[in-house]
């Protein structure tokens, strides 16, 4: 691929040049643009399935002898979000694989705590899992919401120490909730209107995945360790912010995702902060979570920032259910700070570890944007 006349060749596109191009104002314009609206029926069906799964497993967990495990029940229910556009038979198989990954994420991090690994080693395990889950989602073609759900589950499973009983309880509750989610989708999928297979990976994608894999592990580890050193209580949130940026296929897509995640998280955190200030009951939180599941599916396809306005309350409310004593303004504020730190660190690593091809694509995009102004 040759650059257009008047542009710098790939070999001479420095990282500082790439960063300068990323600071152009048109990226902000692109970040607030809206994608074409998907059929509302499809989004409504996917959101309803996730909401129904949550409305089944969360009350059961709350009324069970193990209400303290409700957070892991909510993690298992998130399996309903995946493979929404696959044909019914294909989706059942994909969701089983997703369920194994979700249970595996809880099991892997819980086992790290059970083995007595310190927080620093657990953060390293989390960074490695970020890469593993990215590869698994690319190879499995599970679609949105992608590896972030598995990383969220792994991050929520971090703890200073864990007994054998606690380890087995976590795995069992997550697995049962994931099975319920699978059953809800399997029984209701015939009513879905869309029957599409997911696109196959592009030729040569595995080589690109390996390159992105290393970048993801480095970037998420950096975000987690920097925020941990700064005293963050949830450094895994910073790793998630970095992952959202680092999985981008183009440098300008990474910037857009960083801007969208930061803005959406800030607004969503403000909203959930107001809700938590009213000290809602667990039953109220469950009802709100179900509504958010549906609303998120209706808007997230239009713009990632709008989706984050709803995803952020969902994540924080699930955290509040799992640890009511931790819920408060401090947790809400840290979500915003960790997200900003993760996005900034992720974008920095994305540029520093960019390939010449990455920078060439950015140069071409920059040339197209600037030439269109004249």
Describe this structure in words.
Helix content is 72%, strand content 0%. The chain has 15 helices and no strands. The chain has helices at 15-22, 26-31, 40-63, 70-77, 88-114, 119-140, 147-156, 164-188, 205-229, 235-246, 251-277, 282-299, 304-322, 329-352, 356-371. Helix 4 runs antiparallel to helix 13 and helix 10 (235-246) packs antiparallel against helix 11. The longest helix has 27 residues, at 88-114. The two termini are 25 Å apart.
Kindly, what is the distance between the CA atoms of the first and last residues, rounded to a whole number of angstroms? 25 Å
Report the uncertain regions. 1-11, 195-204
The secondary structure category is mainly alpha
Radius of gyration: 21 Å
- Strand content is under 5%
Overall 3D shape: globular
Task: Describe how the helices and strands are arranged.
Blueprint: H1 15-22, H2 26-31, H3 40-63, H4 70-77, H5 88-114, H6 119-140, H7 147-156, H8 164-188, H9 205-229, H10 235-246, H11 251-277, H12 282-299, H13 304-322, H14 329-352, H15 356-371
């Amino acid at each position: 691929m040759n650059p257009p006349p008047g542009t710098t060749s790939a070999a001479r596109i420095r990282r500082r040049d790439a960063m300068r191009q990323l600071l152009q104002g048109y990226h902000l314009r692109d970040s607030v643009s809206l994608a074409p609206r998907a059929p509302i029926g499809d989004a409504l069906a996917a959101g309803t399935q996730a909401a129904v799964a949550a409305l089944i497993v969360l009350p059961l967990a709350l009324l069970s002898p193990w209400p303290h495990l409700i957070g892991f029940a909510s993690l298992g229910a998130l399996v309903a979000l995946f493979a929404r556009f696959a044909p019914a038979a294909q989706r059942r198989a994909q969701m089983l694989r997703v369920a194994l990954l979700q249970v595996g994420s809880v099991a892997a991090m819980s086992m790290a705590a059970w083995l007595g690994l310190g927080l620093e080693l657990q953060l390293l395990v989390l960074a490695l899992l970020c890469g593993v889950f990215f590869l698994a989602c690319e190879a499995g073609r599970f679609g949105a919401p992608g590896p972030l759900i598995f990383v969220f589950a792994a991050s929520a499973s971090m703890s200073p120490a864990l007994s054998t009983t606690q380890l087995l309880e976590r795995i069992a509750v997550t697995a049962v909730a994931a099975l319920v989610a699978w059953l809800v989708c399997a029984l209701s999928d015939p009513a879905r209107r869309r029957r599409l297979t997911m696109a196959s990976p592009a030729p040569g994608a595995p080589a690109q995945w390996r390159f992105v894999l290393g970048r993801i592990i480095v970037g998420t580890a950096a975000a987690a360790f920097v925020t941990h050193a700064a005293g963050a209580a949830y450094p895994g949130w910073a790793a998630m912010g970095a992952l959202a940026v680092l999985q981008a296929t183009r440098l300008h897509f990474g910037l857009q995702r960083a801007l969208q995640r930061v803005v959406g998280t800030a607004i969503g955190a403000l909203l959930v902060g107001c809700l938590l200030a009213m000290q809602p009951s667990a039953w109220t939180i469950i009802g709100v979570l179900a509504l958010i599941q549906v609303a998120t599916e209706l808007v997230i396809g239009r713009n990632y920032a709008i989706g984050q306005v709803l995803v952020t309350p969902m994540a924080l409310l699930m955290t509040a259910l799992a640890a009511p004593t931790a819920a408060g303004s401090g947790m809400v504020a840290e979500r915003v700070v960790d997200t900003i730190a993760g996005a900034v660190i992720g974008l920095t690593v994305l540029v520093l570890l960019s390939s010449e091809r990455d920078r060439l694509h950015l140069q071409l995009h920059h040339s197209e944007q600037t030439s269109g102004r004249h």
